[in-house]
Amino acid sequence: MKHTLILLGLALPFARSKTSGELCSGTGARAADGNWYCTEVWAITYRNISQAGVYNRTTYVDPSTGICGHERVDYPATGDLTPLFGEVSMHLRGPMNVSQLAVYQLPGEMHTLRKRNIIPFYNRKPMMNRRDIEFAAQAPFQDTYQMRPFDKRIYNTTSSCSTQTVTTTVTVTDCEADQPTSTVDPLQNTAYIGPPLPCMPTPHPQALDDSISDPICTCKDSPSLPVSTQKPLVSPTRSPTEPASEAGNGEIGKRAAPDWSRVAYYTSSAPSQATGFSFLANLGDPQKSGTFDYAFGNSLSYVTSDGGQVASESLPFSGTLDTSEREIAIFSDKSCDQDCPYWRPNATSHFGWSGSSKAFLIEFQMDHYQNQGTDQGLISDAPAWWFLNAVIPRVLQYGNDRNNIPCSCWSTGCGEFDAFEILGNGEERAKSTLHRQGNLQGGDSNYFKRPVGQTLKFAVVWHYPHITALVLDDDFNFSTALTDDQVQQLVSYDPNSWTHSLFAIGD
Question: What InterPro entries does the entry give (predicted)?
Answer without folding.
Answer: YJL171C/Tos1_C, YJL171C/Tos1_N
